[in-house]
Amino acid sequence: MVDNNKFYIKDLNLYYDTLRALKDVNLQIKSNKVTAFIGPSGCGKSTLIRCLNRMNDLIEGVKINGLVAIDNTDIYGDIDVITLRTKVGMVFQKPNPFPMSCYDNIAYGPRCQGVKSKTDIDAIVEKSLKQAALWDEVKDRLNKSALGLSGGQQQRLCIARAIAMEPEVILMDEPTSALDPIATAKIEELIENLKKSYTIVIVTHSMQQAARISDNTAFFLSGEIIESDTTSNIFTNPINKKTEDYITGRFG
Ligand SMILES: Nc1ncnc2c1ncn2[C@@H]1O[C@H](COP(=O)(O)OP(=O)(O)OP(=O)(O)O)[C@@H](O)[C@H]1O
């Protein structure tokens, strides 16, 4: 397979015990693009995004079959899951900074990976915060608790923490749903800049957000991907009637 796909998903099924939450999912996720997952509540968006760095492994009773490949390597094959999660970082719905200083939040991962030099860690902290568009706001309070930041700043700190691990992919599960419109706009602008360096997959409940920031969109319904295409085709020229009904607000 020679292409610009970061992920290749083929006939993927996921069961939570007897509940089949993903049904024969087929999807390709392009490198250095933003891919949005949209669809009504409970349709499997978070379940699929969690498959991309094997976060579902942590849930008891989960059974998976089918293929999820990153750069042509089967991530459910014989691979090191810690390395996978380093390559595929994740940002969650609710900002979840560690209860420590802003500096230590960013330094934590690189230190765990064995980076010891203070000069190196300083450089990683500065670079990550700059890329997350947070440096100017926190450079004078690096040693203060991250819990004192606003929600929007905390979410950018979490993005900086993911960036510090030098991932290739950043998964974002509803990253702005707990934020106000101004903080949301900042994260959206950030995502636009980050896609030059990273592949981004985002779950969002906001169709406006998907339309604003993503290049490609996959529409989910009851565990199936009904349609996936460029975002402009999904929103202006959907092929499937169900997609059209959803994006025009006729259901969901
Ligand atoms: N840990 C779990 N154990 C059992 N069932 C689960 C678990 N997580 C999700 N499910 C079920 O799997 C289905 C898909 O859930 P998922 O969270 O992936 O949907 P979603 O599209 O992300 O929903 P939302 O938009 O509300 O976050 C739902 O029926 C949900 O109840």
Short description:
By secondary structure, the protein is an alpha/beta fold. Helix content is 36%, strand content 27%.
Q: N- to C-terminal separation?
A: 37 Å
- Please give the count of helices: 10
Q: What string, H for helix and E for strand, traces the elements in order?
A: EEEHEEHEHHHHEHEHEEHH
CATH topology: Rossmann fold
What top-tier CATH class fits best?
Alpha Beta
How much is the average pLDDT? 95
What ligands are attached or bound here?
Answer: adenosine-5'-triphosphate
Report the sheet-strand fraction: 25-35%
The helix content, as a percent range, equals 25-40%
Rg over CA atoms, rounded to whole Å, is 18 Å
Describe the sheet with the most strands. Answer: 6 strands, mixed
How many beta-strand segments? Answer: 10
Shape: globular
**Numbering strands along the chain, what is their spatial order in the largest sheet?**
6-7-8-3-9-10
**CATH homologous superfamily?**
P-loop containing nucleotide triphosphate hydrolases
**Structural class category:** alpha/beta
GO cellular component, one term: plasma membrane
Subcellular location: Cell inner membrane
InterPro entries: AAA+_ATPase, ABC_transporter-like_ATP-bd, ABC_transporter-like_CS, P-loop_NTPase, PstB-like
Domain ABC transporter: 7-247
Task: Write up what this structure looks like.
This protein is of the alpha/beta class and 252 residues long. It has one domain: Rossmann fold, CATH 3.40.50. It is 36% helix and 27% strand. The protein has ten helices and ten strands. It has a six-stranded mixed β-sheet, sandwiched between helices. It has a four-stranded antiparallel β-sheet with strand order 2-1-4-5, covered by helices on one side. The mean pLDDT is 95. Bound molecules: adenosine-5'-triphosphate. The site of adenosine-5'-triphosphate has 12 residues, from strand 2 and helix 1. Adenosine-5'-triphosphate (ATP) is lined by residues 16, 19, 21, 39, 41-47, 59.
